[in-house]
Design goal:
Elements: H1 2-7, E1 11-14, E2 17-21, E3 33-40, H2 44-52, E4 56-62, E5 67-75, E6 79-83, E7 91-93, E8 99-105, E9 111-112, H3 137-140, H4 142-153, H5 165-174, E10 197-198, E11 204-205, H6 212-220, E12 224-229, E13 234-242, E14 248-252, E15 260-262, E16 268-274
Length: 275
């Protein structure tokens, strides 16, 4: 488990401590559990009921917020039987719990869209006829339109205006964002919002070299994932995955009324990081 988490960057840094688990990381592993959140501890009776009907997993924060244990069942009227991964202790009183990480147990496969993006169509009359260098946004603006959706989802503006295919296209034209063939220069994008947009070292993938666990992990890490599909002729913004079809990627498609592709349809990827 640790190897999977390390390999897929599912630990994060907080206040100098870089051993913090991303609480939704389990959603990249399988369809059984879904994060509810880290919350104030529910009433004792509510936890007992959740354990009894096997609908919820409870990880209790104890030892003054320095340790987690797995709750198994009630022990009397004020304690729990537990699995403790470190201390030789089998029960803890309810009063020792400060807060609880809760996961719901899923009875069926489910779709997950970890982050919300607007859907822009590249042929929208508001901008479809706007020229890039030689062609219009409607004709060849799928990658740029996908990036504009991502920017808008992260509330990153373009010269003070909301990110749309129109505003991003204008900015790219004036900042050497395209080459002579209308291809996007990805490494220009960080200039749009320094400190908020990043073209990382692992941003360019000219083949389908990311497996589905990695794609799921990137999405849960809130990385911007753009897939190159249709034999390399089209780009779409990846928004999620579906455990009922483990090869499916859910997308915002600027060119077609398509909401999902198969991982096998992908011939390359573009990865951005945004804050």
């Amino acid at each position: 488990m640790n190897n999977f988490l390390v390999t897929h960057s599912l630990y994060h840094c907080d206040a100098g401590d870089c051993n913090n688990l991303r609480l939704n990381a389990i959603e990249a592993v399988g369809p059984t559990l879904k994060l509810i959140g880290e919350l104030p501890k529910p009433p004792f009776g509510d936890i007992v009921a959740g354990l009894a009907n096997e609908s919820t997993i409870y990880l209790a924060h104890v030892h003054n917020n320095h340790h987690f244990i797995l709750l198994l069942s009630a022990s009397g009227s004020d304690s729990f039987v537990v699995h403790d991964p470190f201390y030789p202790v089998n029960t803890y009183p309810y009063s020792n719990i400060s807060d609880i990480i809760m996961y719901s147990v899923q009875s069926e496969a489910w779709a997950n869209t970890p982050f919300s993006y607007p859907l822009y169509k590249q042929c929208d009359p508001q901008w479809g006829n706007n020229v890039m260098i030689n062609h219009t946004i409607c004709e060849v603006g799928c990658l740029m339109s996908s990036i504009s959706m991502a920017l808008n989802g992260f509330n990153i503006s373009v010269d003070g205006a909301a990110a749309t295919p129109a505003t991003l296209n204008t900015w790219l034209i004036h900042n050497q964002g395209y080459d002579a063939g209308d291809d996007l220069n990805e490494d220009v994008l960080p200039q749009l919002a320094p400190g908020h947009v990043f073209w990382p070292a692992d941003g360019m993938h000219r083949s389908n070299d990311l497996d589905m666990p990695t794609v799921r992990a990137y999405l849960l890490n809130r990385r911007v994932v753009i897939a190159n599909v249709l034999q390399g002729h089209h780009f779409v913004l990846v928004t999620g995955f579906d455990w009922s079809d483990e090869g499916a990627i859910l997308v915002n498609d600027s060119g077609f009324n398509t909401t999902r592709y198969q991982h096998s349809d992908v011939v390359g990827w573009r990865i951005f990081d945004m804050i």
